[in-house]
């Protein structure tokens, strides 16, 4: 129990409170009797004293742990959207966390996930808490990850897409950005154009301008506020932008 509470308590900021904190408390309570949010708060204070970290009054900073917990909770919403829990999707979540954090930290995260997925979650309340404390770039990365989960079994169902679209709206992701990320997971004729948020009748100059804009928007360096480990997940999204641009260049014989 000690290692688990230290992992969770030391890494969280804004997600220790509000509706997300309540979900965490429920998830842990379903695994460990007698353990609650107060245990994580205690571990967090011990961690701050040991590392010399001081928290500014009334400011809730976003941490790598906050991003991690947000992923788990939103992933549980998408996985349950079609009325069943698919093992392939669960395996995708586990593998993604191993790639991001290493096996030990990923195992801790998945223990928590197994508790979270048993809880009925208010999508709106969770997303409001996330968007109040997380940057736009980080919220875009969340949507990309959720599509990856939905596509893990080879097909994004209508209910899964509806769930991600609802989450996107609550996170204040506009339709152009949502459709851009969605197009990264569909092999359609005009996917490359959708990824760059332009139409097929765009001029070559407009294509180049769109690429520069999107490359800047999705550059992994924009995720520094939630830890270097999450840049790994951002690289796939950034590569999709580059691939879309190369596809259009080849189609048009652009220099």
Entry summary:
The chain crosses the membrane at residues 7-32. The chain is mainly alpha-helical.
What secondary-structure arrangement, pairings included, does this model have?
Blueprint: H1 2-11, H2 18-29, H3 37-51, H4 64-79, H5 87-101, H6 103-116, H7 123-133, H8 136-151, H9 158-170, H10 175-183, H11 191-195, H12 204-217, H13 231-252
Protein name: DnaJ-like protein
Pfam families: DnaJ (PF00226), TerB (PF05099)
Keywords: Membrane, Transmembrane, Transmembrane helix
Architecture overview:
By secondary structure, the chain is mostly helical. The protein has 2 domains: 172 residues, no CATH class; 70 residues, Helix Hairpins. It has 13 helices and no strands. Helix 4 packs across helix 6, helix 5 packs antiparallel against helix 6 and helix 8 crosses helix 10. The chain is elongated and about 60 Å long. The protein starts with a helix and ends with a helix.
What is the terminal separation in angstroms?
59 Å
**What spatial form do the alpha-carbon principal axes imply?**
elongated
Strands, count: 0
Strand content: under 5%
Rounded mean pLDDT is: 82
- Which consecutive residue ranges, at least 5 long each, have pLDDT under 50? 41-51, 53-60
What is the helix tally? 13
Structural class: mainly alpha
H/E element order: HHHHHHHHHHHHH
Rg over alpha carbons: 19 Å
Q: Helicity level, as a percent range?
A: 55-70%
How many domains make up the coordinates?
Answer: 2
The largest pleated sheet is described as: none
Features of the shown structure:
single chain, mainly alpha, 255 residues
């Amino acid at each position: 129990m000690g290692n688990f509470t230290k992992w969770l308590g030391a890494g969280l900021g804004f997600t220790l409170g509000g509706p997300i904190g309540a979900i965490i408390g429920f998830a842990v309570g379903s695994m460990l009797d007698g353990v609650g949010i107060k245990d994580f708060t205690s571990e967090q204070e011990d961690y701050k004293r040991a590392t010399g970290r001081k928290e500014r009054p009334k400011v809730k900073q976003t941490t790598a742990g906050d991003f991690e917990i947000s992923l788990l909770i939103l992933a549980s919403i998408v996985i349950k959207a079609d009325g069943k829990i698919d093992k392939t999707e669960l395996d995708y979540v586990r593998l993604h966390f191993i790639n991001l954090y290493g096996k030990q930290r990923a195992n801790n995260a998945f223990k928590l996930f197994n508790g979270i997925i048993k809880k009925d979650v208010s999508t709106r309340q969770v997303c409001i808490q996330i968007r109040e404390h997380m940057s736009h770039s980080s919220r875009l990365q969340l949507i990309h990850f959720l599509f990856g989960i939905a596509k893990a079994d080879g097909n994004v169902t209508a209910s899964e897409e509806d769930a991600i679209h609802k989450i996107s709206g609550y996170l204040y992701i506009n339709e152009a950005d949502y459709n851009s990320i969605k197009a990264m997971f569909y092999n359609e004729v005009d996917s490359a154009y959708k990824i760059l948020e332009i139409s097929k009748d765009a001029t070559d100059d407009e294509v180049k301008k769109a690429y520069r804009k999107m490359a800047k928007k999705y550059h992994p360096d924009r995720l520094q506020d939630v830890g270097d480990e999450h840049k790994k997940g951002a690289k796939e999204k950034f590569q999709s932008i580059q691939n879309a641009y190369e596809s259009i260049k080849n189609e048009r014989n652009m220099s």
